[in-house]
Amino acid sequence: MLSKYELTITQAQEKLKTQGKDIWNITALERETGISRPTLRKYRDGGFKAHGNKGKRKLDTLIFPYEQLIDEMIKGGNGNAHSIFRELKKFNYTGSLSTVKNYVYPRKYLLPNIVRNTKVSPGNRGRRYKMKSGECFQMDWGFVKVKDENGKEHQFSIFVMVCAFCSKRYIEFFTNAKQENLFIGMIHGFKYLGGIPEKIMTDNMASVVIKHQGKEPIWNKNYKEFMAIFGFKTILNKCRHPFTKGRVERAVRYVKTSFIPNRTFSHLGDLNNQAIQWCDDANKLPHTITKEIPNKIHSKEKFAIAFPFDEVMFEYLAVKRDIAFDGCLNYEGYRYGTPFTYNLKHAYVMRNGSIVTIYGVDRKLIATHNLDWITREYFLDNQWEINDAYISGQPEEEPTSPIKCNTLKLKRPKIIEENDYDLSIYDSINDNIFDLEDV
Predict the structure, then answer these.
(1) What is d(CA 343, CA 338) in angstroms, rounded to the nearest whole number?
(2) Same CATH topology for 136-298 and 310-378?
(3) Contacts with 430 (C-beta within 8 Å, 6 or more apart), sequence order
(4) Is the dihedral of CA 419, 425, 430, 432 positive or negative?
(5) What Rg, from alpha-carbon coordinates, does the chain have?
(6) Which terminal residue of the chain, N or C, has fewer Cβ atoms less than 10 Å from its own Cβ?
(7) Distance (Å, whole) CA 158 – CA 174
(8) Do 349 and 356 contact (CB within 8 A), yes or no?
(9) In whole angstroms, how far apart are CA 208 and each of 137, 176, 182, 233?
(10) How far apart are CA 219 and CA 207, in angstroms?
(11) In this structure, how many other beta carbons lie within 10 angstroms of the beta carbon of residue 338?
(12) Longest Cα pair distance anywhere in the chain, in angstroms?
């Protein structure tokens, strides 16, 4: 590859050649290139030679001790320079972000090959939405695979909510993207972002809208009730369309490229705690597009809609589950025990971080479990203990219905002839009682 001087001299020589002049005419080259005569004579006499140290790197740079660590991160799927820079800070890296960018960019080839299964058309150009302060939040789902600290891979759904005015982000992980988890994520997002906006912008997910009748959407019944209780309106957009809800679309991608790579966790509660910490750190940094700090701008936003009563939000934050015959209920793929004294068929379960709480139908706390994912079943210490109101001793299995078994009562058959008996009556024996006197 030619240097800047070499390229300039070569282009000037091509011009002199077309004019029929000597290509090494020092006076003409100086006039064309502006390069000094001694430098031109050096190239004329010695030729275009590469510098002796060209291609060599200084070994005592700030980033040199971290090169192997950075290469491992890139091979693990993390090609985001900002994310790598934050990880290096944990290892006492004192260099700049630009140094990390200059090192990561030419090593993108180390990233694992990721083949996209679907092709997304770019669509038509258009104008982006511009929202006022406190007017709108954008929300969406993403789906990722994350390995725990034991190397086991889990597939999770990411709920992402972003303020459309300042781009402050909130993320939360769930085992699936069902409607009950959508409501939980929205309420947690409202609380983290400090209020309920006038509008929510999302795509046409099944838990929000069933179908369209002309231009009018047919809302999901439960979501329509949720909108009425919390007092906001919903704007529906195309899926994966950056000109409508591009902030949340970019946030989902940002989570996949910045938060997920090289991430390990012990259980779902631990992963969500890390997600909250990541949101706190990301919202303190200047946004790439706006160049403003989201936390600083968002602190000035005001929301006109007040939160409903806690009793109303409890209906959405605590999901209803059936209790099995052994006193356990299933939630997020794990089974949690309830006290033996609670003999109703249903209960409400809620997870806050690593703490799983179970409430009765009267909304009183009946059990608490500490989630650690060591086992798939969590029993109470006194789950099968019986208090004085019950008979002491271990529970015994009893039949669910009384036994109905009729015994056949046969009377002595009539003698037709001496030593001969009519045995045809025995062919019609069944579970019913009948009298053989009439045979």
Answers:
(1) 9
(2) no
(3) 408
(4) negative
(5) 37
(6) N
(7) 6
(8) yes
(9) 15, 15, 9, 12
(10) 9
(11) 24
(12) 152
Structure tokens at 312: 């109303």
Query: Hey, what are 135's tokens?
Result: 């007017």
The CATH number that domain 136-298 falls under is: 3.30.420.10
Residue 42 is which amino acid?
A: K
For residue 430, CA distances in Å to 185, 403, 426 come to 62, 17, 9
How far is the C-alpha of 363 from the C-alpha of 348, rounded, in Å?
8
* Highest CATH level, class, for 310-378: mainly beta
Strand, coil or helix: what is 218?
A: strand
Tokens linked to 298: 């968002």
Q: Closest Cα partner for 244 from 131, 120, 118?
A: 131
**What is this structure's pTM?**
0.68
The burial class, CB within 10 Å (0-12 / 13-18 / 19+), for 166 is buried
Q: Which two tokens stand for residue 178?
A: 């069902």
Q: Over its length of 439 residues, how does the chain's per-residue pLDDT go in tens digits?
A: 556 677 788 888 888 888 888 888 888 888 888 888 888 888 888 877 766 666 666 667 888 889 999 998 888 888 888 889 988 988 899 989 999 999 998 888 888 865 555 555 555 555 566 778 889 999 999 999 998 888 889 999 999 999 999 999 999 999 999 999 999 999 999 999 999 999 999 999 999 999 988 888 999 999 999 999 999 999 998 776 667 788 898 899 889 988 988 888 998 999 999 999 999 998 998 887 778 899 999 988 988 888 988 889 999 999 999 999 888 999 988 999 998 888 889 999 999 888 999 999 999 999 999 988 888 889 888 777 665 444 445 555 555 566 566 655 555 555 555 555 555 544 444 444 444 444 4
Show me where the domains of the chain are located.
Answer: 4-46, 64-110, 136-298, 310-378
Structure tokens at 130: 């511009």
| Separation between Cα atoms, residue 341 and residue 325, nearest integer Å | 13
Asked if residues 347 and 357 have their Cβ atoms less than 8 Å apart, the reply is no
Query: CA angle 431-437-439, nearest 5°?
Result: 80
